[in-house]
Amino acid sequence: MSKIKMTTPLVEMDGDEMTRILWADIKELLIHPFVELKSEYYDLGLPHRDATKDQVTIDSANATKKYGVAVKCATITPNAQRMTEYNLHEMWKSPNGTIRAMLDGTVFRAPILVSGVKPTVRTWTQPITIARHAYGDVYRNVEIDVPGAGKAELVFTGEDGQEIRQTIFSFKGPGILQGVHNLDASISSFAHACFQYALSVKQDLWFSTKDTISKTYDHTFKDIFQEIYDSTYKAQFEAAGIEYFYTLIDDAVARVVRSKGGFIWACKNYDGDVMSDMVATAFGSLAMMTSVLVSPDGKFEYEAAHGTVTRHYYKYLKGEETSTNPVATIFAWSGALHKRGELDDLPELMAFADKLEKATIDTIESGVMTKDLALLWEGSECQAVNSRAFLEAIAQKLSA
Ligand code: NAP
Ligand code: MG
What we know:
CATH superfamily of the largest domain: Isopropylmalate Dehydrogenase
Structural class: alpha/beta
Bound molecules: NADP nicotinamide-adenine-dinucleotide phosphate, magnesium ion
Low-confidence stretches: none
Number of domains: 3
Distance between the termini: 12 Å
CATH class of the largest domain: Alpha Beta
Number of strands: 16
CATH topology of the largest domain: Isopropylmalate Dehydrogenase
Number of helices: 14
C-alpha cells in the first residue's frame, strides 16, 4: 500500500507528560503507517522551552503564520511547583497564551459525540461549538472599593485634549465600582475568526450579547459583527447555505438548550468562560473536547481542550498501566490533516482524516474504550483498555 503524500508541511508542536507519550503513539500507530508525514517539528515540551528561553514557542507560532495549519500537543503552563520540578530558569508564560496573542486568534471548542455517551440535554444530537472572545471586559477590569459618600465619574481624555465625562453614580455610602473596556480591533478580529471558522465547518453562527441593556458597549459588538458580515461574508454564507444569527444572550441560552446542536455559538469573554464549562460538562467528558485556534486571516491550530493529564503521567512513570483517553488528540491530528488537505487540494489526505475519525468513533461504539469513557458508557457492554491497546484497536480498523 503506498502512503498518502503531502505537499506543504504541517506545523507540529510537541508537548508534555502523558499527552507527549500519546503523541508519539498516535504518530507511530495511526499516522506514519498511512501518511508520508511532512511536518515542521517544534518541541514545546517544557525542558526544551526552558533551554531555548521560550524562543521555540515564538518560532512555532511564526511557522503557523507561514504555513497556515498547526497541530499542538498539550503543554505544561509553569507554576511555582513546576519551577522546582523542572529546575526552570524562569516561569515561562502559557504557550497557548503566547500563540493566541501572536495569531490574534479565537478559540473554538467542540465536543466529539459517540452513541454510548448521552449528553445531559436530551435534544442535543450534534456538537455545539463555543467561540469565546479572549480580550478585555471584566478580565481587564479596574475596580474601586468605594469607602463612602462621593461622586463616581467616567472620564475619557483624548490625546488631542478632548474630554468626555459622565456621572456613573452619586454614592450616599460605601459601595463598589468597576471600569471595563474593549477595542474595535479586537472585536473585529474575533468577528472575522468566527465567520472564517463557520465557513470552514459549514455551520450556522450564532452571536449573543446584552445590547438592550448595554446600549453602547454590547451594542458595538453587535454592530461590528453585522457590518463585517454584510460587507465581507454574507455572499459566502449564502453560497455555503449557512446563516448568521444574532440574538440576546438570555434568548440564546433558551434556544441552545432546546436546540439539536450543530452550530457555533460566539460569546463575549465572560459568557464564553461560563457557557463553555456548562456546555462541555453537559456533553460528558473533557477528554472528548477538541479545540481550534483560528486567526482573523484564516490560520488554524488544532489541539485537545484538556491538559497534559499529570496524574496519569506520574502513575506511568511508576510503571503503572494508564488508560488515558487519546481521542481529542487524535481529532487534533485529523482536523489539521484535513485542513492541510483542503488548502493543498489533496482529496486523499482529506479522506484519510475522515477515515481516522470514523475508525476512532467506530472503535468506541464497538465497545472498546479507555476507562474514563467506560465509566460514562450507557451502551451495551464495553471493555476498558489501556491507551496503547485502544490505539492499536483503532489502527486495526483503519487498516481494514
Ligand atoms: P488535565 O490535564 O486536563 O487533567 C485533569 C483531569 O481530567 C485528569 O487528572 C483526568 O482525571 C481528567 N482528564 C483530562 N484529560 C483526560 C484524558 N485525555 N483522558 C482521561 N482523563 C483525562 O488538567 P490538569 O491536571 O489541571 O493540568 C495538567 C497540566 O496541563 C498543567 O500543567 C496545566 O498547565 C496543563 N494544561 C495545558 C493545557 C493546554 O496545553 N491546552 C490545558 C489545560 C491544562 P482523573 O485524574 O480523574 O482520571
Ligand atoms: Mg472557566
